[in-house]
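Re: that chain you flagged

S.,

Sorry for the slow reply, it's been a week of failed gels. I finally had a moment to sit down with the sequence you sent. For the record, here it is as I used it:
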Amino acid sequence: QGTIHPFRKTHRSLFGKLTQEFTLVASDRRSWRVLLFGALNLLCTGCLLMWCSSTNSMALTAYTYLTIFDLFSLITCLISSWVAMKKPSQVYSFGFERLEVLAVFASTVLVQLGALFILKESVERFMEQPEVHTGRLLVGTFVALFFNLLTLLSVRNKPFAYVSEGILCGIIPGLSSVLLPRMNPFVLINLAGAMSLCITYMLIEINNYNAVDTASAAAIALMTFGTMYPMSVYSGKVLLQTTPSHVIGQLDKLLREVSTLDGVLEVRNEHFWTVGFGSLAGSAHVRIRRDANEQLVLAHVTNRLLPLVSTLTVQIFKDDWTRPLLTGALSASPASAPLPSVGPLELDPLTSTPAKPSSPPPEFSFNTPGKNAPPVLLPAPGHHAHRPYALGLGYTAAPPTWGAGTAGDGLRTGGVLCSHI
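Prediction finished late last night. Pasting the C-alpha cells below so you have them in one place:
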C-alpha cells in the first residue's frame, strides 16, 4: 500500500503553466489589440516571404526582417502586460520586471543575427548576381511599410520606448524630450528601407541593374544592425545591474543634497542599478552624529531619494568613535595591583624601565641609578650628619666607587655626582 498524501500539490506540465499565464494575459482587454496585430503580423510575414521567393529579391527579404521584428515587439508587449499583472514573491522579491529587459535583449540580438545573415548573402551575391523579378517587388514594399507603420503607431510598446529614450538621453541629454517624438528610430528605418526599395525598383526597371538589389539589401541590413546594436547594449547593461548613464548626474545631485542634511556626516557604500525599465533600485549607508535622531534623518534621506529610486534600502548608523586605551594605565590602588606583563622585556625594579639584559646601554644616554653605579644610601633615623644647603635632609657622603667602568662613565651618572657632594 502506498503512502497517502492528503495535501499533495498537483504538478502541472510546462504547457499547462503557459496556458494558464496566457489566459491571465488574455483576460485584460488591452491585450486584445496586441493579439490581433500579432495574428495580422503572422499573415503579412507569410505573404512577404512568398513574394521574396518569387521575386528573388534580397532587398525585400531584408525589409521583411523588419516585419519579423514587429512580431518580436508585439511579444514583448504581451510580456510587459503579464509583468504588470504579477506581484513580487518571496523568490522574486523585485518582481518580474527583468523579464522585459531580457525580451528586449533577445529581440534585438535576433534581429542583428538576421542582419548579419543578409550581409553574408549579399557578399555572395556580389560574386554572382542573379536576376531579380520586379513583378511584386513594389507591392511587397508598400504592404510591408503600411503594416509596419500601422503596428508601430497603434501599439504602445513601453519597453522599446524606454530603451529608445535612454539611448537618446545618453547621446543628447538636453534635447531628448523634443527630439524623441519626432525621431522614432523604428519609423525612420522603415521609411529609409522603403525608399531604398523604391530606388531599387526604378533602377532595375529602367536600366536592368540587378546589382542594386544586393546593394540595397546590404544598406538595409547595416541600418538594422546600427539601430538594434545600441538597444542590445543598453538592455545588456541593465541585465548586468549597472547604473544608467543618463541618471548618474541626477543621482550625484541627490547624494550631495543628502550629505548636507542636518545630522548627516557621511554617505558611503552607495550602489544604484536598474531592476527593470523605469525601475531603479539602490542602497546606501548613512553615518550620522551621535546626538541626531535616526528616524528623522531616515525620513529626510528617503524623501530625497525615493522620487528617483523606487526600491531603496538605507542603513543609518551613528558615529561610533572610541578613544584609544592606555595598556599601562595605573589603577586606583597601585600597591595591590600587579605590574602588567610586557612580554619578554624585563622591568628594572627601581625605575620600572624596560631593560634588555643582552644589550649594552646606548651611547649618549644616562645610566640609571642601580644599574652601573651604587645606589645612594640614606642614613638611619637619629644619625646626625652634614646637611647640605640647610634643606633639612640627612645625607651621608658615600665614598666614590667606580666599579668596573671608567671615570667617564661615573661622571655621567646623577647618582655618582650626588655622592660627591
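What I noticed first: Confidence is low (pLDDT under 50) at residues 323-372, 385-421.

Talk soon,
D.
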